[in-house]
Amino acid sequence: MRVIAITGKGGTGKTAVAGMLIKYLTSGSGTLLAIDADPDSNLPDVLGVKVEKTIGDMREFMLQERDSMPPGTNKETLLESKVYEVLAETPRYDLLVMGRPEGSGCYCFANNLLRGIMDRVLKNYDLTIIDTAAGLEHLSRRIIRDVNELLVVTDGSRRGLQTAERIRELAKSLNLNIGKMHVIANKITPENRMIVEEYARELEMDLVGSVPYDEILERYDLEGRPLMELPDDSKAFQGIKGIAGKMGL
Amino acid sequence: MTNEFPFEISPMFEGERVRKDDMFVELAGPKSRGFELVRAAGLDEIEDGRFNLTGPDLLSMQEGSRHPYAMIYRIAGKLVEPDLEAIVERRNHDFQNYIQGYMHLNQRYDIWVRISKDAVKKGLKSFEQIAKATMMLFKNELPFIEKIEASFITDPEEVEKQRADALKVYEARDARTKGLHDEDVDVFYGCTLCQSFAPTNVCVVTPDRISLCGAINWFDGRAAAKVDPEGPQFAIPKGEILDKVGGEYSGVNEKAASLSGGEFSRIKLHSFFEYPHTSCGCFEVVGFYIPEVDGIGWVDRDYSGSAPNGLAFSTMAGQTGGGKQIIGFLGVGVNYFRSPKFIQPDGGWDRVVWMPKNLKEKIKADIPAELLDKIPNEDEVGDLKTLRDYLEKKQHPITQRWAKEEAAPHAAPSEAVAQPAGAPLWSVPAGLPAIPQFGGGDGIKIVLKNAKITIERIILKGKEK
Predict the structure, then answer these.
(1) d(CA B107, CA B16)
(2) Chain A with chain B: Cβ pairs closer than 8 A
(3) A68 touching B (Cβ < 8 Å)
(4) Rounded CA separation A23/B456 (Å)
(5) How many other C-beta atoms lie within 10 A of the C-beta of residue B433?
(6) Count: domains in chain A
(7) Residue B232 DSSP one-character state
């Protein structure tokens, strides 16, 4: 069981990186789970999977319906079943969308149930890839525990790397016990490659690899085409393959 | 565990998921129908180990297909009684999940089962093998079951027919469960989920009192404590009953003292004024004493306006929360309004004088019919003056309290309502029955810790006629 969370500043292409990594991993033999844990992202679109309901919807259902359920209902069993109901199953991997954030009520109990359920869900997969916002929500609340590696995506900008630095501090202060943190430089051109590498050295970040700027990827993004259909020989995908190899994926 | 079966049986397979692509068949679940049911029977009515299947067996089902599915167990034993049915039935989920390659989710009429291709490859041929393994586990783990037989159904029409009967059984069971009260159990449950921000909070969940957040009822406490007795929900043996009406128990008091770090040593579970339950901050509704009418108003989290006392939920929640016993305010879960012991020492529903429309609508069915139009909402009453007029006009039972107190205005010694620090002062118009009765006039205890009290002036006025 290996759990990798992908994060980074908005606009750096973190979801595209997650999507391409998932595309690459589906050619392997292990069981794979993708989790979209960023309410602003669109991992299902990038993967070309239609998801109707989210974990957030189900948690809300538990809150809305709790007083009308039969008094002896086992809520953990019920919520677990609801989580599996929203799990999108594709032939090569499964996808779970965390969805809407919490409302104003008290989510302590629902989240506590969810923690145990998510622990069990993750155990069923050899590998889990989580697309999460820079604020690391869901990780901070320990809804998803046991994240082994954090993969921070940055673009060629100094700000992207500064965000990476903040994420590293945040992960430390949240005591997330993340074993390793790598940085991926995305949208890299021959012009900015040197600068990014220099920044990374300054901040003592482990730059695991870079993904070249790719016109084909850009076009897919523009047209809203799923990245699962990206040609295998596209520059960006080749970059991802190299990184996956370095990470032992 | 045994080699009688072509699959392994072990608790380590709990939580094992059968993915769509690895699944041989899907049974019941959100896209089909089914149920599980346990019934008690007489010892001579059933034959131990018997299995009966109505409908196609596993191997005649097409790979990847979906079917309705029902499992009915009949159990017998000298100690078996109908009250045990629900408890035994819930174990079907546990035991069937011990079976490798068999996924069981949910309960009752919401069950969802998948059997893996791998299990079939290894020799699983028939539902009989599943039933035999489950029955074996039932008997091993629950020794009071002396005999057990199973009827499984995969025939769509038969599932529908039997399901209708099962629904009636569940319904009757729920009616019995709803009839469970504090006096019927020996154990309550505590919860410390809120102690992270309300360190002295003592949340006690009983059959007649849901947690303040509204999320945990007595059954949830029981289920969670059973899975992890050291977890955030745990058992509190009731101990001796000290005050039946107020709901005071020696076991709860002991636990309160240890959970609150010695802060609180007495809790009356159903009392508003005397040693009330602590309020965490998560509560769905806050009750507030209105001295001007000697009544209690309630305002829920979703109501953004002001209550007749001029305060919004957020303001009152801020004063009440943090795990303290605050006389004059009380946080509760919405479902507590449905409790037959709802603030019973303080007059119960007769003491309720205001509620926002939406909250009232939510619990309408549980408000005593004769009070329904006597408790005003924000459209009818927005301040204290109109509140008093409204209650008077509608002849709310609270007016009888006024009459009583006016008849003997100086009988009781003056008592004070302890107010949370920083609470806006209520101006109490003289002549109104402003004084709540604390447990029959034996006074209240006010403990001031590290208190700084500054009073700029106190004005005492004579009675206005």
Answers:
(1) 17
(2) 96
(3) no
(4) 72
(5) 18
(6) 1
(7) S
Question: Where in the sequence is the domain holding A149, given as residue range(s)?
Answer: 2-56+88-101+124-157+175-246
On whether any CB of chain B is under 8 Å from the CB of A91, the answer is yes
Nearest to A108 among B173, B194, B217 (CB): B194
CA distance between the termini of chain A: 12
List CB contacts (< 8 A) between B227 and chain A.
76
Question: Taking CB atoms and an 8 Å cutoff, what residues of chain A touch B301?
Answer: 104-105
Return d(Cα B174, Cα B404) in angstroms, integer. 42
Whole-angstrom distance, CA of residue B261 vs CA of residue B198? 12
Q: Give the pLDDT confidence of B404-416 residue by residue, as tens digits.
A: 877 765 544 444 4
Whether residue A109 and residue B174 make contact (CB cut-off 8 A), yes or no, is no
pLDDT, one tens digit per residue, over B114-127 is 999 999 999 999 99
B284 near A CB under 8 A: yes
Asked which of A108-122, B180-194, B446-460 is least confident by mean pLDDT, the reply is B446-460
- Taking the CA of residue A93 and the nearest CA in chain B, the distance in Å comes to 9
Residue length of chain A: 249
Query: Which residues does chain A have within 8 Å of residue B216's beta carbon, measured at their own beta carbons?
Result: 109
Mutate to test the interface with A, among B26, B93, B220, B283 (most CBs of A within 10 A): B220
Average pLDDT, chain B: 89
| Residue B232 near chain A (CB below 8 Å) | yes
The answer to whether B119 and B104 have CB atoms below 8 angstroms apart is no
B335 touches chain A (CB under 8 A): yes
Distance from CA of B175 to the nearest CA of A (A): 9
Asked if the Cβ–Cβ distance from A70 to B177 is below 8 Å, we say yes
The CATH label, of 3.40.1470.10, 3.40.50.620, 3.90.105.10, 3.20.20.10, for the domain at B182-407 is 3.40.1470.10
CATH class as words, domain B11-178: alpha beta
Evaluated on CA atoms B318, B321, B325, B331, the torsion sign reads positive
How many beta carbons lie within 10 A of that of residue B197, not counting itself? 13
Q: Which helix (H) or strand (E) holds B141?
A: helix B127-141
| DSSP character string of A180-203 | EEEEEEEEE-TTTHHHHHHHHHHT
Q: Does B15 touch chain A (CB under 8 A)?
A: yes
Per-domain residue ranges for chain B?
Answer: 11-178, 182-407
* Beta strands B65-67 and B23-28, pairing class: parallel
Are residues B319 and B425 in contact, defined by beta-carbon separation less than 8 angstroms? no
Q: Look-up: residue for tokens 């005999």?
A: B147
Q: Which residue type is seen at A161?
A: L
pLDDT of B439 > 80? The answer is no
Which of A52, A73, A95 should one mutate to test binding to chain B, selecting the residue with the greatest count of B CBs within 10 A? Answer: A73
Q: Which of residues 47-86 of B touch A (CB under 8 A)?
A: 86
Task: Indicate if the pLDDT at residue B3 is higher than 70.
Answer: no
Bridge partners of B102, per DSSP, are: B115
Residue A157: its pLDDT value, please?
84
Q: Which residues of A touch B17 (CB under 8 A)?
A: 84, 121, 124
CATH (domain of A238): 3.40.50.300
pLDDT digits (tens, 9 = 90+) for A200-247: 888 888 899 999 999 999 999 999 999 999 999 999 999 999 999 999
Mutate to test the interface with B, among A81, A83, A107, A120 (most CBs of B within 10 A): A81
* Dist. CA B277–CA B326, nearest whole Å: 9
Q: Which one-letter DSSP state was computed for residue A230?
A: S
